[in-house]
Structure formats: C-alpha cells, structure tokens
Amino acid sequence: MSGRGRCIYKKEEYLVNYTFLFEQDNCYHCVRIMVRTINILEKIETGCINFPNQIRPPKMEQVCGSLNPSQNLITFFAETFSPVNCRPSLEGVWHFAYQNRFRFTGECNHPDAYIQSCQTPGTQFLITNQKFNITYRACEGMTGTFDGSVEYSCLGAWFVGKNLFFAVANTKESRRDEKYRCFLRNRDDDLFIAASITAECNTLKGTESAPERLRITPVKAEVVTPGCKFPESYSGEWVNTANLDADVIINSTHIVETWYPDEGRWRKTTYVCRETRGSRYLMARLTVDGCQKDFICFDFVPKHQNIIRFRKSLAMIKDDFSTVCSWVQFPNRNEWKYDLLLGNV
After folding, report:
1. Which of 267, 262, 277, 156 is nearest to 227 (CA)?
2. How far apart are CA 286 and CA 253, in angstroms?
3. I want to staple 124 with a disulfide (CB 3.0 to 4.6 A). Which of 254, 288, 291, 317 is the partner?
C-alpha cells in the first residue's frame, strides 16, 4: 500500500477482515480491509501515529486501538469484476417513485418507471440473473427528472446491521466515477431503496437521508389463464394454520394468500388452477414481486366440515402435470404431513 512504508504486522479474521500495521520512519499506520464481496473491498485507517523510541516498534493493538469504526469507509470496486447473482440484492418487478436531493424538490411518481431484476427463464436451479434495469421517466413540470434506462451488473451484497448494501456497475458506462454505484435497503423498511450518485457507499447512512431515494411497489409480472376448477365447497375465506397471519381466499380457479410481514406492508402469492386429476391439482404460482411463474402440485384430502387438508409438492419450472404432480415430488408416504385450512367463519 503506497505512501505508508513497509508492512510489519498482519492480522486475519475469518478470511474477511484483514488488519495491517505499516511503518515509515517513526510514523505508524493501521489499515483495516473488509472483504464485502468478490468485487468489493472497504477500508478504514488511522492517520500517522508517532511513538517514543523506547516503545518502538509498538504493538498492533497500540496503533489500531485508535481506529474509529464509525469513520467513513472507503470503497474499492474491482475494475475487472465478476458479475454475481442479483437475487440477494434485488429480485422482482417494481414500480418506483424517486427523489433526488441535488436535482429537484419533491417526488417524481411516473406510472411507467420500473425496476426489473429477473432470472433468465428456464434457469430455476442455476439462476443467472446478474443484471437488472432501472427505467426512469420524467415528471411533467419537474425540472431535473429525466427519461432514461440504466442497466446494472450486480457486484454483490452485504449486511451491516439491518442495512443491506449492494454494489453495481453500469454496463454502458466507461468513466470510473460514473460506472460504479451503491444501493441500500433496510431490513425493517424494504420498500425504500437509497442510491448513491457517486462511486461511494459511505454517502448512504439510511433511506431517509440518501442522495437519491426510490419508493418501490411490487408489480405482478405475469397473468396465467386457469385450466381447471376447485370444488364449489372450497370457495370462501380460510385460515392457514401454517401461517396464521395470512388471509387466504379461494374462488373457483384461484387461491390467493396475503400476509403482512410488518405494519403497512404486505406480500401476496396467487395459485392458479391449471390441471386436475383425482385429488391432485397442478397450480401455477405467482408472487406479486416475482419475475416468472413456477408450478406446484396440491394434493387435497376431501373437505371435512370447515377443514381442508392438503400437502404441496416441490416447485418446478415446468408446466407438466406428469412431472410436477408425480408422487415422487411429494415426501415419502411415511412422512406425509398435511397442512390445514380452517374455514374463517
């Protein structure tokens, strides 16, 4: 590391944190490198610290005790990077409204502004979604908003407390200071995304004070045509004993399960009846913030009063009854366990 002399001590922690002590004349520097992803490093360091002759060279703890963990981190982006899966960072199709503190006042909420981060269709087990797109739209009367689309390659994600940071590279940009960006989502408030406007992560302290903030709303990406019907007695409102916080509504062709992970937030999964044979029903599964449908088989026990017993197969990407609803897709007969839907009366 240039300008700090020679390295005299090195300490490694869990293969992700590395601390170095440098000496140059009577000037000692402590540098800590944090490996965030295969493409991202972050650094904090002390300034030059001098010691009297009788305690030279000092111990690493004497110098590194001056490290301030709350100081601004310096982020290093790999110039020759290896794109990684975007799913830990951002997955789904989202509408968004955006604010930029340095360009305009207020929030631009255009109906055609979208984020799309989806896996390549057909790659259920070897997911290859290593890029996502943000499509901005200008709002009438708001100078500083703009029309444009940006494609980002994902460089990896990491947690600091409840904050999820993820770094990206603009695939169409060659200038270093414009190519790299950081985003932040909070585990407790994940419908807002903070975005940097420079190649720095230390400008993101939270979603409220970010240079740019996106307010996102999940969008259902696909519509599936039903191909079968449930028994009439299944229609109504139900309680899923495996998820008591969820509302389950069944009509002749759909099962819609809505749950509320936190106050003011909701998630929804829709199952569409595609084909039935006996007690087994092939269902297309759609999540509101999902990118593509997958298929799952429900095996129902005939309804008894206000109770429906069922079990589900493994999810698959293929719309084929013989494959998805094969008995081998269910657990061994000796381990059959049924979930319960109770009539919400």
Report:
1. 277
2. 14
3. 317
H-assigned helices in the chain: 60-64, 176-179, 321-324
What confidence tens digit (pLDDT) does each residue in 19-56 have? 999 988 888 899 999 999 999 999 999 988 888 877 77
Residues of the chain with confidence (pLDDT) below 50: 122, 124-127
What residues have CB less than 8 Å from 242, skipping those under 6 apart? 339, 340
Helix or strand holding residue 255 (H, E)? strand 254-262
pLDDT tens-place string over residues 304-318: 888 999 988 888 888
88-97 exposure pattern, b = at least 16 Cβ within 10 A, e = fewer? ebbbbbbbbb
Residue 14, pLDDT score: 87
SS3 26: coil
pTM: 0.74
How far lies 152's CA from each of 46, 118, 166, 209, in Å?
Answer: 34, 12, 11, 23
Rounded-to-10 torsion of CA 208, 212, 215, 219: -150
Alpha-carbon distance of 319 to 282, in angstroms, equals 8
Which of 44, 291, 36 has its CA nearest to residue 154? 36
Could you give the 3-state DSSP secondary structure of residue 227? coil
Question: From the centroid of its chain, how far is CA 182?
Answer: 13
Q: CB-side exposure of 79: number of CA atoms within 13 Å? A: 4
pLDDT at 261: 65
- Which amino acid, one-letter code, is at 90? L
d(CA 280, CA 39): 46
Q: What does the block give as tokens for 116?
A: 């799309």
Residues ≥6 apart with Cβ < 8 Å to 345: 306
> Which of 176, 166, 160, 12 has the alpha carbon at shortest distance from 78?
176
226 forms beta bridges with: none
Cβ-in-10-Å burial (0-12, 13-18, 19+) of 163 comes to middle
Contact 177, 166 (CB under 8 A): no
CA distances from 179 to 15, 85, 97, 309, 326 (A): 28, 19, 23, 53, 48
Distance CA 69, CA 300 (A): 56
